[in-house]
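Encode chain A's predicted structure.
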Amino acid sequence: MNVNELIEQQVNSHSVVLYMKGTPEFPQCGFSANAVKILNACGVQDFFTVDVLAEPEIRQGIKEYSNWPTIPQLYVNGEFIGGSDIMTDMYQSGELQKLLEK
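Encoded structure for chain A:
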């Protein structure tokens, strides 16, 4: 399985996927910490995470897969949502909560 196929499988096998630096318990950058905090605030208990620092091939591959240059990246129901700034804007408007309720 190549990196693209692995990412495709991860994104489509879990309803909420966060590609981040570090883990939810120990985020390795402020943007990843913010993304986890927002998901927790939305009441998402069970989300799948991938630590791109531990998996360099996914770190580069996810940027190409989404055509988005930064990490973290959030996927909900197989759809790319965005990074930390987009998550923050969507959370503040209530849009992210509605999306995650589905």
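The two ends are 30 Å apart (CA to CA).
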